[in-house]
Amino acid sequence: MIFMTMRKPIITVLGHVDAGKTRLLDAIRGTTVAEKEAGGITQHIGATEVQIQVIKNLSRGLLEKYKFDLMIPGLLFIDTPGHEAFTNLRRRGGSIADLAVLVVDVHKGLQEQTIEAIEILKSYKCPFIVAANKVDTIRGWITEKGSITDALEKQNRETLEFLDTKIYELVGQLHSKGFNSERFDRIKDFTKEIPIIPTAAKHGVGIPELLMFLAALSQKYLEKKLEVHTEEGCKGTVLEVREEKGLGKTIDVIVYDGKISVGDEIILGGKNGTIRAKVRALLEPRPFGEKGNDKFRSVQEVKATAGVKIAAPGLDDALSGSPVREYSEKAEKEISEEIHRIKIDSDSIGPIVRSNTLGSLEAMIKLLQDRGIKVMKADVGEIPRKDVLEMESVAQKDRFKGVIFAFHTTVSEAAETEARKRNVKIFQNDVIYRILEDYENWVKSEKDAEKKKKLSFIVMPAKIKVLRGFVFRHSNPAIVGVRIEIGKLRKEVEVMKKGKVVGKIIGIQSEGKAIEEAKAGMEVAVSISGAAVGKDISENDELYTYIPKKHFAELESISGEFSSDELELIEEIRNMEQEKAEA
Ligand SMILES: Nc1nc2c(ncn2[C@@H]2O[C@H](COP(=O)(O)OP(=O)(O)OP(=O)(O)O)[C@@H](O)[C@H]2O)c(=O)[nH]1
Ligand SMILES: [Mg+2]
């Protein structure tokens, strides 16, 4: 028989350094000491559970005001804030975090890592709400603990206006990232707008609204996703791998479905393939005030949603971000496939990606794929020398693909030396979107340089007219005044009349000064070697640059560089040369 109930949604907190993520989690944990004592807030391994009753008590009139009717059993907050933890909260096709809180410093708006967090949230399709934090630092702010709705009523007009300016700057920035948002109390349609909740984590301001909106949104939009099968085998994710005194390597796991008991056999991902292990102990933090000689207490069974430490023999190579399941052949196959899928050498040629955990690796691969870059190989750990050799051969086929991305990981000395020697690019950074930006900037500047080089080698189309009354010298070389009708005239190109080459431009002068190039509209004096005025050329003649046959394809490849006049001119010259050749 299958029992199905609704579990607590899993919530993670992301944002830029110093935005106040830790403080916000502290505020949630410390919201009401009284609730804590009554069991309303409990500590898990790596997570904090907030019972629904706490949210109901805190929200007072707000639930009625917004017509929220809460049925979920509570919320489970992941205690480690940051992308690191979030990217490890992964499961096939997404994240096990049901919702995220994006913490933004109200004065600073979207900063580097906020943008990175948004990118990752987007790629995992994880809905989020925004905490516009540190509102207490706005000039004139009157601190009122608890509800932000109440606090807003206490503020003077200038303070409120300043807050709104900042909020709408944020709305604009979020919009440019593809999200519609609005101050929480002005939202009309929750399916279309992301609520922005002003908070002062330091003083616990806005926490009731934050909790309430998280609860309401998870219930409304995640209902299906929150169904659990409490009598089935466990499904979870390794959040962290930790050495514990007397226990050896342990794994901190977030269980999002099913249950796990001491003695169960589990299967998870390791650095060298899957690991099958028998649960020796399930550990929870010892509640405050309970007697005991260490920080954990042992339990027999844990049901989703929960954070738990698992002690078992053989966990030395366990991988952060790996799935954990109750052992079955099917589960083993699936986990093995999942690890393999990430590490797989794809058929296409492309870059190598390495990262510190399976989660961050997957996030990086996703973001690259979003940009149309197919990864050839991905793995956790340091960049070894052999990666450079592999990418050198890829670069020979496509130099923009033969690169290495080192996200949150180190590059071995041998790899660095080899990369320098072989000219293989390694993009290394701890901020995902920085790596992507560096790579994209590099590609752009290389392509620009390539184009520039190409342009300097090919003959540009030009149509020039010999001006009447400006013959300065008749021959050896002929020097005449011309007007550039269309295109660009450069030195060292041959010119033709009616398809026949009459000479070569060996000098261009404008107002008495030698120049390298003359553009359409300019009137200049040109020296033409090999041509004689009166014989090969005359006043009022129209001359065209002679374009070598093999240059036409090159010109075509950069056709975006030309105006429609110039494109027509290229065709005219091509026809002229063809007719001449056929004649
Ligand atoms: N005035 C004020 N200060 C705050 C508020 N929230 C956080 N701070 C302060 O901002 C600083 C950073 O807060 P943290 O919570 O450590 O920020 P964080 O986002 O966890 O930072 P990292 O973990 O380093 O990424 C601390 O000095 C906090 O006391 C707030 O609402 N008001
Ligand atoms: Mg912190």
**Approximate strand percentage:** 25-35%
Q: If helices are DSSP runs of H or I spanning 4 or more residues, what is the number of helices?
A: 16
What is the CA-atom radius of gyration, in angstroms?
Answer: 34 Å
Largest sheet: number of strands, sense, barrel closure: 8 strands, mixed
Bound molecules: guanosine-5'-triphosphate, magnesium ion
Derived from helix and strand composition plus strand pairing, the structural class reads: alpha+beta
Poorly predicted tracts of residues: none
Assembly state of the chains shown: single chain
Descriptors:
binds guanosine-5'-triphosphate, elongated, about 575 residues, binds magnesium ion, 34 strands, alpha+beta
Descriptive overview:
The structure is a single chain. With 583 residues, the protein is of the alpha+beta class. It is 33% helix and 31% strand. The protein is built from 16 helices and 34 strands. The strands form seven sheets. Strands 3-4-5-2-8-9-11-10 form an eight-stranded mixed sheet, with helices on both faces. The protein has an eight-stranded antiparallel sheet with strand order 17-16-22-13-14-21-18-19. A hairpin with a 2-residue loop joins strand 16 and strand 17. The longest helix has 26 residues. The termini are far apart. The relative contact order is 0.08. Bound molecules: guanosine-5'-triphosphate (GTP) and magnesium ion (MG). Magnesium ion binds next to helix 1.
Topology:
Layout: E1 4-6, E2 10-15, H1 21-29, H2 33-37, E3 41-43, E4 47-51, H3 52-59, H4 61-65, E5 74-78, H5 83-88, E6 90-91, E7 94-95, E8 99-105, H6 112-123, E9 128-133, H7 148-154, H8 157-176, E10 181-183, E11 194-198, H9 207-222, E12 227-229, E13 235-244, E14 248-257, E15 259-261, E16 265-270, E17 273-278, E18 281-285, E19 296-299, E20 301-303, E21 306-311, E22 323-326, H10 329-343, E23 352-355, H11 358-370, E24 377-380, H12 385-397, E25 404-407, H13 413-422, E26 426-429, H14 432-457, E27 462-473, E28 478-490, E29 494-497, E30 500-510, E31 513-515, E32 517-519, E33 523-529, E34 542-545, H15 551-557, H16 564-582
Parallel strand pairs: 2-5, 2-8, 8-9, 9-11, 10-11, 23-24, 23-25, 25-26
Antiparallel strand pairs: 1-12, 3-4, 4-5, 6-7, 13-14, 13-22, 14-21, 15-20, 16-17, 16-22, 18-19, 18-21, 27-28, 27-34, 28-32, 28-33, 29-30, 29-34, 30-31, 30-33
Helix pairs in contact: 3-9, 12-13
Bound molecules: guanosine-5'-triphosphate and magnesium ion.
